[in-house]
């Protein structure tokens, strides 16, 4: 099987974003419409880590697209720079950030080899917050998976019990040793999802810290790679995809 892997410019209004697209070219040549997975990046912007995960998904038969929230060329070289890049998006969840999420979704929907009824999304750290917001907005995705993501609710949102049920299946993969996310936030997210009548799974992994999927993540307090959890959470993701969509 051969694969296409390439960087793609796409747009949010007049802002240029740079994503990374990967897919099995043989399936596309056969005229197939494939299940697609959006990949949302962590604090640094789209890096080699997201590109590798995107390529791995393509090898499994998916169309995969690593989205770019920050904009072309905007990449953090330090944790401090990452925090500054994230800040405006966390402060404008229902406008600027939502527009970036929709831009990535609209791009993959424009591809004639994408089955628009079988789109999923995964996200890491900041990207985990992104995919949970996609589910909250009911943008028509089949499933989303958050890996060591953020769980803060959308600011100033209506009470969840007054909103329509979430139709997207949700998997949240969380490290039990993640000191950056208080347990209270985990419980509050579960309450929110229950109030929205969502189909959700919340999996705690023993001894796993924040960033448990990322081998090169800085070794800070409560942060670190955990190989066993990385593999188990990836398998859990694939199990969910196999359940809710057929490739």
From TrEMBL:
Q: Which residues form the Dienelactone hydrolase domain?
A: 19-244
Task: Return the protein name.
Answer: Dienelactone hydrolase domain-containing protein
Q: Which InterPro entries match?
A: AB_hydrolase_fold, Dienelactn_hydro, FrsA_esterase
What broad taxonomic lineage does this protein's source fall under? Eukaryota, Metazoa, Ecdysozoa, Nematoda, Chromadorea
Note the superkingdom of the native organism: Eukaryota
Q: Which organism is it from?
A: Acrobeloides nanus
Annotated GO MF terms: hydrolase activity
